[in-house]
Design brief:
Elements: H1 7-12, H2 26-42, E1 47-51, H3 54-60, E2 72-75, E3 82-86, H4 90-96, E4 102-106, H5 112-122, E5 127-130, H6 136-144, E6 150-153, H7 155-162, H8 167-189, H9 197-210, E7 218-223, E8 244-250, E9 252-253, E10 256-257, E11 260-265, H10 271-290, H11 297-310, E12 327-329, E13 336-340, E14 353-356, E15 360-362, E16 366-368, E17 372-376, E18 381-383
Parallel strand pairs: 1-5, 3-4, 5-6
Antiparallel strand pairs: 1-2, 2-3, 7-8, 8-11, 9-10, 12-13, 14-17, 15-16, 17-18
Length: 396
Amino acid sequence: MIGGSNAAAELSGLDRWSDPAPAVSSEERLRRIDRARALMKEQGVDALLIGAGPSLSYFTGIGWGMIERLVAMVLTPRGEPFLICPTFEVGSLEAILPIPVETRLWEEDEDPFRQVAGILRQERSTQLAIDPDLPFGMVEQLRSAGTSCAVVNAATIVNGCRAIKSAAELALLRQAKRMTLEVQRRAARILRPGIRASEVATFIDQAHKAVGSAGSTFCIVQFGTSTAFPHGLPADDLLQEGNMVLIDTGCAVQGYQSDITRSYVFGTPSAEQRRIWDIEREAQIALFEAARPGVTCEDLDGTARRTLMRHGLGPDYALPGLPHRSGHGIGLSIHEAPYLVRGDRTVLRPGMCLSDEPTIVVPGAFGVRLEDHFHVTEDGAAWFTEPSQAIDRPFD
């Protein structure tokens, strides 16, 4: 149903998720560290530096964001991981650590990168792989701290671990996405002529909290011609009869992300709105049906683009057509490797989780994006959420 209700009624019908997925176990985090060490050995690397952020959370369970103070893990081939931490934060750190580590503390007037350099000398490390998300300034500070290690990019190690999701991760992702789909369904019900996009975004945040998340991790609400801009315009749209509606939003469950987009019309769709919507769905389904182990990420992007070209859209990034990649990996980050784009020759493997969102933009008129996620199985792919069936039945 689109319209016919209100925010108060829809919020009153929401409860905290009744079947929450279990947390990732300490044993699983230790297996992740073992996997990282195996990849380090394959690549001739004898030390790995991971800074605060999603990858540190992945390996250690420390869900702290990157700031100017260094909080980091140094992983070497043997022994417990080393954890670099400001001294005044050690109590908070110990309260949340699910795995054993060897802590190296630093005071505010000390250089924390000397701790890192000391570990590398102690462990006789010669090849250091650095977290690709570590800020350039921190890498320069490490160089200045006196390490003599050769430095390489740790992306293949980090992505080699994070890209393949475990059963526990799949359960957390499934919960997050289903929570957001329920929020999307209820957001459609509160629409009315004259409602502002900001009012809908506020409702979505409140609804995400009502089902048990911390709120929306992001929220894009667009009406009418704004939908022709994939990430919107700096305007607070007012909904009118016949407008295309595009809502792209997500939440997190224990750090694992959702990112669901629905497009539909408030009122009666025009023939052109229906035609473009149907092509978008055809492209989304074609991409999904092509996903299986052994196929490359760029193959899936090509599948979606060929579908559009058969209907006279594109080619490549030309408009009307698809102006961006067809999808992305998802996990602890909303966008993470691999990516469904030409040039990404990553081969799909069971456990990879990806978005499927071949947006169609008709300049000056409207855009349609249908975004759901799937995980690669042994012989194909499986949806986390069921895709929309029709422009006037977006939540069947």
